């Protein structure tokens, strides 16, 4: 059964979307000793402006070598269970044998209020998804269907996606620099510290633009 999620408030999601960017969140997690929550570098958005933040709804997929009796069954269950503010995070453990994601599924999750999709495997229908401007982050593109190649076997479970642990309800944030996972218990603290760091970076930027040396700026502000 899917694990019950403790919702992060929509107000907090809005603060992240409006003020933050992935690298600054990574820096804050590093400072808290949480150093393994950035997804691998080759999980990329389908278009440069893609950006999302949402509560993780998880799915675990694996390679299969024949068509199952009920293809797509658990993937459909995962999608139909989405609520506004969720994002779907699916691990294939890096399998690229079939395109697990596509245009019709993107249409379905957008209609349910999902903010984005992350897959450490393959997607397809990429031009249509780009035209939709729906944020999909994937490891690559594969035109072959996932049916009989890659199948979702569990949903609502703890997973590792792109090398990072993801639990249902964790906050997942993606932009052009990549994807980071904020553990649910740390969300409020991470957002507060990240907002403070963004303010500090704005101050440093002005100092550097005014001619202050990098070394002097780092000595004064401790930010680089």
From TrEMBL:
InterPro entries: RraA/RraA-like, RraA/RraA-like_sf. Keywords: Magnesium, Metal-binding. Its cofactor is Mg(2+). Mg(2+) binds at residues 124-125. Substrate binds at residues 102-105. It holds the Pfam family RraA-like. One of its GO terms (molecular function) is metal ion binding. The keyword Metal-binding applies. PANTHER family: 4-HYDROXY-4-METHYL-2-OXOGLUTARATE ALDOLASE 3-RELATED (PTHR33254), BLR3842 PROTEIN (PTHR33254:SF16). This is Dimethylmenaquinone methyltransferase. It comes from Handelsmanbacteria sp. (strain RIFCSPLOWO2_12_FULL_64_10).
């Amino acid at each position: 059964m899917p694990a019950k999620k403790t919702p992060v408030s929509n107000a907090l999601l809005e603060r992240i979307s409006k003020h933050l960017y992935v690298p600054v969140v990574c820096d804050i997690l590093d400072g808290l000793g949480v150093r393994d929550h950035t997804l691998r570098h080759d999980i990329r958005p389908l278009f440069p402006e893609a950006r999302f933040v949402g509560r993780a709804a998880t799915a675990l997929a694996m390679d299969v070598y024949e068509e199952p009796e009920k293809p797509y069954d658990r993937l459909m269950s995962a999608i139909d269970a989405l609520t506004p503010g969720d994002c779907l995070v699916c691990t294939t453990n890096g399998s690229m044998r079939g395109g697990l994601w596509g245009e019709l599924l993107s249409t379905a999750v957008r209609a349910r209020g999902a903010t984005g999709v992350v897959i450490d495997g393959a997607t397809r229908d990429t031009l249509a998804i780009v035209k939709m401007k729906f944020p999909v982050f994937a490891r690559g593109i594969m035109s072959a269907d996932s049916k009989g190649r890659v199948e979702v076997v569990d949903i609502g479970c703890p997973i590792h996606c792109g090398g990072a642990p993801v639990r249902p309800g964790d906050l997942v944030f993606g932009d052009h620099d990549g994807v980071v996972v904020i553990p649910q218990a740390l969300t409020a603290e991470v957002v507060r510290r990240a907002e403070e760091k963004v303010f500090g970076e704005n101050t440093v930027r002005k100092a550097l633009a005014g001619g202050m040396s990098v070394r002097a700026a780092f000595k004064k502000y401790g930010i680089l």
